[in-house]
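Researcher: Batch entry, complex prediction.
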Amino acid sequence: MTNRHLIKMVNNIGKFLISVLVLSVLVFTLSRLAPGDPLYAYYGERVEKMSVEEQDQARERLGLQAPLFTQYVRWLQRAVHGDFGISYQYKTDVKEVIAAGIVNTLLLGGLGFVLIFALALFLGLFCAWREDRLADRVVCRIGTVTSCIPEFWLSLLLLLIFSVWLDWLPSSGAYAAGGGGSLPDRAAHLVLPLSVVVLGHLWYYAFQVRNRLLEEVRADYVLLARMKGLSGRRVLYRHCLRGALPSYLSMMAIALPHILGGTYVVETVFSYPGIGKLAYESARYQDYNLLMVVSLLTGTLVILCNLTARLVNERIDPRMGVRSVSAGGEVRRL
Amino acid sequence: MDVLTVKNLSVSFFRTEGEIEALKNVSFTLREGEILAVMGKTGCGKSVLCKSILKLLPDIAKIKTGHIYIRGEEITGYSEKQMQGLRGRFFSMVFQNPMTALNPCMSVGEQIGEMVRLRRPEFSGRERKKRVAELMELVGLDHAGERARQYPFQLSGGMAQRCVIAIALAAEPAVLFADEATTALDATVQAQILELLLKLRERTGMSIVLVTHNPGVAARTADRVALMRDGELYRIGDVEEIFDESTPN
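Model: Structure tokens for the complex:
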């Protein structure tokens, strides 16, 4: 038993490392194949005044002259030791640049994710329970409309109403300028971006929950559950939710990076200093080292989330742990 | 006294294309402790009959006319809440396909235990476990303790049907509906399950409505047989009486 768990764990860790390695190769190669000159990130407009020799020297210094493969090996050797190089644009250690933004993004994206996760489940359950009645229809219509509004437009609309007209909430940043960022201050700065993140994604997931649940409601086992004398609501909570939960959890696990990424636009509109803004800038200005770390962070998150989703699912729905091996032990192939 | 009486029951499905009459003026009685086989071709309304007595039909189906009595008390107008009190107490049901009737995400012990908890809320956790084990033994599932932790996908069709029957029995019903309970099973298992139903009737004294399209099953198990065609119950009588004559079906 323990032996099997150990093998499974080593297997999972191995897969994880290989995935991250492949991802780093891909991002490394693709970012360097993309058009654009990283010197611009480093020197800005001054590049145009530099002679060709000076430009070559600068490239040499940044290690951009060597063949792609050599560059990658060099990067990898340093990365293994925790040295990810400097950001061309910010001229400081990449880790420092990231550290400054990650807390803000985690706060916005993380809080958004938790809210979306809980509210979508609640709304989905509610709509499934009231299927096709007035409440369900109203929620469905409102949800479709809000999820169709582009995030940048919604952001601007909320800014106009709550910051400009009513002057209730601050319009940009993560905390008031000069202030250390007290809790009420940070919360006030979070309200608008957070609302946009939640409103933009909520209905999509709530609708998925609703439809997944309604699929379950039509399953045969529901008849037996009702035969037991359970009320419709308890059948939904006790039986159907359990069937719908695995796919919801794996969907949400995969959605975590997506929702964090969805903060990109929101961060830009609200000038919110986070990873999303960094990712966008690093890709735009060929800030290779920064781009690598941001991509690897996001990629690692995706892979970890998928892994977690699978492990959680196996606990909820035991059929998933069997991996195409039937009761008799023979392997079934499609 | 008759445990269940159905008088002039008519049920229709109202679809956008129009009304479909599923049951036309069906009347019958079920006596205490008897097995009544309801026979007829697929689609003749056998299942609808069971489900309309239990009010488990979809929303588009409506009882147009008729009365349903249990032990003399009319339940035709019962609300969903009142019906919930009857389901899993007075009535219970065994379904055609045991593999889909059980919740795939719950261990069978949990599913039987749920019924025990609903029927016997006064039981402590230990008493409930004991009752589940008893029920599993009663329906012929060996190694109850281990088996209770298994999930439906780990069971064979016959074993799964025994679990469904165990759930039905946990309700300690007065009337058990067995809707094509043996159809999805192979012949040997089919015989075992019928044997089991007979044995359980002896022990508990419950009445059984055995829905089947198989005359062999009806002849072997039932006391009386009701014949259905196109939503009409056109003949009902003792098993010898029905099978001695050559029937038009």
